[in-house]
């Protein structure tokens, strides 16, 4: 029998499914629960165990990992008679890899401590591709000892794994990450429209920009989306809208000005209001095209 910890995984979406599958490939026993039957079938097909409820998934688990869209979903799966805290064993480690508010993570850690359950907030960056390739950046908040215990497991999921401070710190760093990503995508989108309107060979231009100071992971990952206008979601505008709300609220609370970030947050919100919330966040290009009177929309 494997000496690896027994894993319960709650939330098998775009990110959660490939992450859980990477743990299975590494030899972990993974029992998963999610609301979508097809995602449970996918988990079972790839060697995991499908549970019929949160209680069934977490009972007896050494480590519980959650990956759901936002704070309300984390609270829904964690609390109440059917939630994680009611059924996880004392001493279990709960690793929440969702992107939520720092305060939600702090509150969860306090509530879990009363049940003898340890908690890390450990949101990720890298998108669907990073999840599939197991090269995510993982920013954690919580006790050093719990982080050290989780590190071998986290190294199966990501490439850059850093403890950023106490509970909630991982979420604060993730909020900063989402701010940088959104502003970067917006700048890239504006450059794309500028280049095309100027009659420049766009793929050639993006290649040379990527090799200089303007190069970034965002440009490398998203340039094909820009050139082909393929906005199949790797990370949806709806979720980035949520994250921009988190970072602007958190910045206001600590007195940090976000002059550019606030503008980009409004552009993300406008794109969502125009019906593009289900598209990849590289679809910020569509907003720039609309403002420029230059659109390739069908």
From TrEMBL:
Keywords on record: NAD, Oxidoreductase
Domain (6-phosphogluconate dehydrogenase NADP-binding) spans 6-164
Question: According to the UniProt entry, what is the EC number of this protein?
Answer: 1.1.1.60
One GO-annotated biological process of the protein:
glyoxylate metabolic process
The catalytic site is made up of 174
Q: Which GO terms describe its molecular function?
A: 2-hydroxy-3-oxopropionate reductase activity; NAD binding; NADP binding
Source species, domain of life: Bacteria
Query: Which EC class does it fall in?
Result: oxidoreductase
Please report the stretch or stretches of sequence annotated as the 3-hydroxyisobutyrate dehydrogenase-like NAD-binding domain: 168-286
Q: In this record, what's one Pfam family?
A: NAD_binding_11
The family classification in the record reads:
Belongs to the HIBADH-related family.
- What is the name listed in the Swiss-Prot or TrEMBL entry for this protein? 2-hydroxy-3-oxopropionate reductase
Q: Origin organism of this chain?
A: Streptomyces nigrescens
